[in-house]
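Dear H.,

Thanks for agreeing to be a second pair of eyes. The structure we're designing against is below in token form, covering all 283 positions.
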């Protein structure tokens, strides 16, 4: 596996692959890779001849009080994992390669509406940072396909919308969440959990499962959300929100909508855990 950190060498490598007729899949990450990321790489390899993984802890998507400085950076370990997964190229640019201008002069990509609700309402500017960096990575790597985890369901929809609205010639593939045996969704931020918190963390998946059961048996949306919030609180978490939305666009469901998603975010110690569950509701 090749490691490239600058644009000139990246473009040279990508051009050579294109001339050889190879299709390219990109897996954008912030590193500290776990089995969830490796599943994305496996999916990417199934679809394209060449797989690029990017590792870039993107300052633009962190709020001023958030964990940008503390975010785990484990490049040597990540490199070994990617090597064993058969990745062709690891692209690990510096902050100045991605953002040559100061933040206040940086061109931004905004997906209004979708970016302002749920996690976007609690983390102002977060999805502008995500959309901007993903758009830049697409322009740098010029992949045919990009692969993202469904754990970050709102992020996946923001990226799909951005790609469609800007007519970017990149297919977007969402991959189901990878979980620990007790249901906890894999996340780099799970590493922040103390052992006693880790034992309580599966409450998020449990609350989502109970909420899905409630919806399937005709329970109303407000009651479902309220019960899930209480369940999280009883487990010792601090819920940010639990919300039932239309899976297609995260708008509030109409009574005739059956394809729904339940999304939850909750604090446990220093970790903000997010998760979601799709549910088909009888109409
Ligand atoms: O999901 C992530 O790891 C990040 O938000 C992404 C998509 C790599 C953009 O920085």
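And this is the sequence the design step returned. I haven't edited it by hand at all.
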């Amino acid at each position: 596996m090749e490691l490239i950190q600058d644009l000139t060498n990246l473009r040279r490598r990508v051009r050579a692959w294109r001339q050889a007729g190879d299709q390219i899949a990109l897996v954008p990450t912030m590193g500290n890779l776990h089995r969830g990321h490796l599943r994305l790489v496996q999916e990417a390899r199934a679809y394209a001849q060449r797989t690029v993984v990017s590792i870039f802890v993107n300052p633009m998507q962190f709020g001023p009080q958030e964990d940008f400085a503390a975010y785990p950076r484990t490049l040597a370990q990540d490199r070994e994992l990617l090597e064993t997964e058969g990745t062709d190229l690891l692209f690990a640019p510096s902050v100045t390669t991605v953002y040559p201008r100061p933040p206040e002069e940086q061109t931004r990509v905004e997906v209004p509406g979708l970016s302002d609700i749920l996690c976007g309402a609690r983390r102002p500017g977060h999805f502008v940072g995500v959309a901007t960096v993903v758009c830049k990575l697409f322009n740098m790597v010029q992949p045919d396909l990009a692969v993202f985890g469904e754990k970050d369901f709102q992020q996946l929809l923001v990226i799909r919308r951005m790609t469609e609205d800007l007519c970017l010639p990149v297919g977007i593939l969402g991959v189901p969440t990878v979980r620990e045996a007790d249901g906890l969704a894999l996340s780099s931020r799970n590493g922040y959990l103390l052992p006693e918190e880790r034992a309580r963390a599966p409450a998020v998946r449990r609350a989502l499962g109970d909420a899905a059961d409630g919806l399937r048996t005709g329970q109303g949306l407000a009651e479902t959300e309220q019960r899930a919030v209480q369940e999280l609180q009883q487990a010792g978490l601090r819920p940010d929100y639990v919300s039932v939305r239309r899976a297609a666009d995260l708008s509030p469901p109409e009574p005739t909508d059956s394809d729904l998603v339940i999304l939850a975010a909750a604090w446990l110690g220093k970790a903000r855990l997010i998760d979601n569950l799709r549910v088909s509701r009888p109409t």
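Two observations from my side: The pocket of pantoate is lined by residues 28-30, 58, 61, 130, 133-134, 152, 155 (CB under 6 Å). The beta strands are 2-4, 24-29, 50-55, 89-91, 145-149, 171-175, 238-246, 259-268, 271-280.

Warmly,
E.
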